[in-house]
Amino acid sequence: MIDHRPDQPELTVGQLSSRSGVSVSALHFYERQGLISSRRTTGNQRRYPRDALRRVALVRIAQRVGVPLAKVAAVLALLPDGRTPTRQDWKRMTECWQSDLDARLRELQQLRDDFADCVGCGCISLDRCPMINPMDQLGADGPGPRCLIEPVGTGRDDVTAG
Predict the structure, then answer these.
(1) Is the pTM of this model over 0.90?
(2) 154 by DSSP, 3-state: which?
């Protein structure tokens, strides 16, 4: 049984893993990325401050909504002395990510709305393809699902005007 006493000032990597629900290897990765930090004992064992739990939770939440770890690390690096984010810090962080999250929501909504009708053009779209992409004109814009990458009507009106 792993000891999780709240009065314990530091946690081993196993305790942090057990308490946070994050694997030991992921914690080591987070540490290499500068998201959390530890000190080494004389026996070269990692010891994490208890507030690493909050940092790990913050990282997991950010990952869950799709914020890249590099952006999480950049925002955490702005905190003085590597301290754990407060409620106000968290609010400021989420404001930094707001436009990215809004863009991701728009992309997901477009994908949801267009997915049933188009697999992307320059592809294997069904009977709509000749109407939306006659003679594969969108293929000139590059590979992949062009209508999902750049929706029709955003600069490619010449393709659909026909």
Answers:
(1) no
(2) coil
